[in-house]
From TrEMBL:
Its main location: membrane. The keyword S-adenosyl-L-methionine does not apply. It comes from Nocardia camponoti. This is Penicillin-binding protein PbpB. It is found in: Membrane. Keywords: Membrane. InterPro entries: Beta-lactam/transpept, Beta-lactam/transpept-like, PBP_dimer, PBP_dimer_sf, PCN-bd_Tpept. One of its GO terms (molecular function) is penicillin binding. PANTHER family: PEPTIDOGLYCAN D,D-TRANSPEPTIDASE, PEPTIDOGLYCAN D,D-TRANSPEPTIDASE FTSI. Belongs to the transpeptidase family. Pfam families: PBP_dimer (PF03717), Transpeptidase (PF00905).
Amino acid sequence: MSIGKGTLLIALGVVAVQLLYVQSIAAPGLSAQAASQRTTKETESAVRGPITDRNGNRLAFTITAKALTFQPVRVRQQLAEARKADPSAPDPDQRIKDIAEFVHNKLGPTGPKTEELLEKLRSDKPFVYLARNVDPRIANEVTAKFSQVGAERQDLREYPGGALAANVVGATGWDGRGKIGLESSLDSVLAGTDGSRTYDRGSDGAVIPGSYRDQEPAVNGHGVELTLDEDLQYFVQQQVQQAKQASGAASASAVVLDAKTGQVLAMANDNTFNPALGPANWASADMSNPSITEPFEPGSVNKIVTAAAAIEYGVTNADEVLQVPGSIRMSGVTVNDAWTHDVAPYTTTGVFGKSSNVGTLMLAQRVGEDRFADMIDRFGLGKNTGIGLPGESPGQVPTRAEWSGGTFANLPIGQGLSMTTLQMTGMYQAIANDGLRIPPRIVKARVAPDGTRSEELQPDGVRVVSPQTAQTLRTIFQSTVQKDPMGVQSGTGAPAAIEGYQVAGKTGTAQKVDPACRCYSTSSYYITFAGMAPADNPRYVIGMMLDAPVRSSDGSGGQSAAPLFHTIASWALQRDRVPPSPEPKQFVLEAGL
């Protein structure tokens, strides 16, 4: 056989072997590879549900926007190859400039500048976003004129109120998932479930007709209706900020509850943020919710616990006259009243109206440590309220086993324990609601995409005191806002009084801990107030805290949060046209005068 014929036979043999390999051995793998190259799985994003106030006003909702996309390396290469093959094709560099100018002109002054767009279009990256959050109509104009520019669906979360209730509502990140607040804790409810579908593309990239399969439709997220009242929230938020500035306080917060249901009508802090500006503009210090995350010592506001125990267990009555000295010694600890006085004939009502530490501790001794500890527990102190907001603090209450000799000299007057503004307000809700404490809630209902409502279950109430005791306490604590021209029968919270309405409440002043000596400061205080209006038929329970103010909440002398209560309660009563109260009685705080 000649060399030429042998070579030919060898070549034919190699071809035959390769053909056999392709047809029999490699065929399945190659077929799968080809299928994978033409098969596309597309995700259909679910629309995030809205968050509304109790009246359906939208606090957060989603609109569908577009993101303009570009593949710099691939597109420039394609443009160059097209120009090489056909000199009449667009010049690559000119095409890039045309895209930049057109996009800039369409997006206007709020969009990226032409220079920024050119930098992205000329980059060496395989993929870039030219612009985000683009109106779908504008995006369609761009992609219709320039096929080289792509458009991705991008859901945009809108917060029409800006900073309104932002510490409660929270915000989503660039990925559309909840990052803080209710947006985070209810993310699984709001987000819904994405859908998907699979289809094939031909060699030209076009979808092959009839190739759609494995289609799973997206299930949009549920909406969430809150208990908040948008108008009241706005007003309270505004007043809290003004109170902080007027008083010179380091911070301030306030909570408004529905007296009967415990639902949160407003929750405001001086520090807030605008979620609509996006994560790049958020300051972490402004994203917390101090009303539930930052406990403080409440001071005399906590005397409601002592008063409740004293009346409930029958160790005193509203009119009993106590001979109250200027100081008292308990377990080696001497406690003084805030003002100097000899033995004074204060009524039980006067002890709380004038906020006598000594008189309060005298009554606490009658109650006893065990019954007092039980009353603290009934008021829910030292426990999370279960409101459903992330980061809630339970506060700090020493367990009965942790009590030392001086514990019982501190707790009845509001020192040695801590609570949040929400917990403090919740204590007074129990008294406003005839002794039944309803754990506060901020989610009212969930609304399915088809409009079906699922009301949140009302939490079980906790019996703190009897209805009769609660009525007596509402009467006693009206003395706090009583004003006597002579000063003798005045309470400590007279600026909280509202003409035409009965108001019951309590002021509080608690020494802050000085970190330098780890002891109580003699110059820095938490100033608190909690109360209800109208006291004869409560509608609103309002609690507030000022951290280290140098003036009152209205900028006047002294240190008091009572003016802030007056402002908020007056606005709510007038807006809702609550009928006036009977004329309040005149209380005897100090007998024999």
